[in-house]
Write the structure tokens for this entry.
Amino acid sequence: MRTPSDVVAAAGARAGAGSGPENSTRAAIELCGVVKGFDGHAVLRGLDLIIRPGESLTIMGGSGTGKSVLLRLIIGLLKPEAGQILLEGQDIVPLPERDLLPVRRKVGLVFQGSALFDSLPVGENVAYALREHTEWDEAAIRARVREVLDLVELNAVEQQDPAEL
Ligand SMILES: Nc1ncnc2c1ncn2[C@@H]1O[C@H](COP(=O)(O)OP(=O)(O)OP(=O)(O)O)[C@@H](O)[C@H]1O
Ligand SMILES: [Mg+2]
């Protein structure tokens, strides 16, 4: 049976990296033998995947091939039938919902549809995670919201509702 470190070694070999120190670099995200299906229909059949810190990876595939299922598995919204899913070395598969919350705080994920709260203006959508997960005061939250909206040149729409964009 494969183990996560076997998969790291295999990925290193594929990349022609030999047995140098980069092979022992802990993966940011690692999947090992992940199996997931619905109602007898197999979607992922033993998926192995390694994403190292700082690495960018694009996953492409036709509609219904399992891209969104993969992302939901990585943040623990779905559980696989078999395999391991490691985030910074921690297997999240056995974790109960309560222990998944700190794991999810490490991950940013934009859903394909309904990505914004329609009932909140743009600025409040951006502020949402800070209000939920930090003790920052109002001034600090407002400053951070302006800072990140400025990065993407969206300051002008801070007060607008998503439907007005
Ligand atoms: N909760 C679910 N219940 C039953 N089947 C599901 C569920 N979620 C996904 N599936 C099925 O799993 C398969 C993969 O779906 P997924 O949403 O991952 O596809 P995708 O690659 O993201 O497609 P798209 O490019 O259209 O977004 C599809 O056959 C889909 O119908
Ligand atoms: Mg999808």
